[in-house]
Amino acid sequence: YVSPILLGNESNIKALASDKGLEISDLEIIDPETSELKQELVTAFVERRKGKATEEQAQEMLKDVNYFGTMLVYTGKAEGLVSGAAHSTGDTVRPALQIIKTKLGVSKTSGIFFMIKDDKQYIFGDCAINPTLEAQDLAEIAVESAKSAKSFGISPRVAMLSFSTKGSAK
């Protein structure tokens, strides 16, 4: 069961939903600029970044939905963050790298995305973060992607795909 939290200006979100014929009246909408959680998240952000951001910088950064959403996850107020359709990979991943960080014992940050076709679910590991990897990195990402699949109830079968062979993508 999922209870989505939409981040952004409430009137803009409602207008867009109305234009698209979507019913969102039962969804929570939080505006990072006016949220009652903002100060709590700013304080937690400054503490987490330990001297790398002032309170004023944190106030500005948390106006961004990706930073705000990542802080919701970090503080346990949300279980996950979905982003990327309207934001670059860098803008989506950067807050997580700064705030949540890489899992202990894992040397490379990687990402996964889901694809659903008919009644089949697929997870693709690290299609957007690391452009060049060594064999050991690929193995680690395959193992971590398989663990992620299991955590979503998907029985993992791992296949390796190559983005480019000897520069063929140029």
Detailed description of the structure:
It contains six helices and four strands. The chain has helices spanning 10-20, 38-49, 55-61, 65-74, 89-99, 135-151, and strands spanning 5-7, 28-30, 112-117, 120-125. The chain has a two-stranded parallel ribbon. The model has no long low-confidence stretch (mean pLDDT 92).
In short:
The protein is built from six helices and four strands; from the N terminus they run βαβααααββα. With 170 residues, it is an alpha+beta fold.
List the helices and strands and how they pair.
Elements: E1 5-7, H1 10-20, E2 28-30, H2 38-49, H3 55-61, H4 65-74, H5 89-99, E3 112-117, E4 120-125, H6 135-151
Helix pairs in contact: 4-5
H/E topology pattern: EHEHHHHEEH
Radius of gyration: 18 Å
Helix content bin: 40-55%
Q: Pairing-aware structural class of the strands and helices? A: alpha+beta
Name of the CATH class of the largest domain: Alpha Beta
**Ranges with pLDDT <50 over ≥5 residues?**
none
The description of the largest β-sheet is: 2 strands, parallel
Tell me the number of helical segments per DSSP (H or I, 4 or more residues long): 6
Q: Main sheet: which strands, in order across? A: 1-2
Pfam family, one: PTA_PTB
Domain Phosphate acetyl/butaryl transferase: 3-170
Keywords: Acyltransferase, Transferase
GO molecular function, one term: acyltransferase activity
For the structure shown, list the relevant keywords.
170 residues, alpha+beta, Rossmann fold, 2 domains, two-stranded parallel sheet, two-stranded antiparallel ribbon, 4 strands, globular
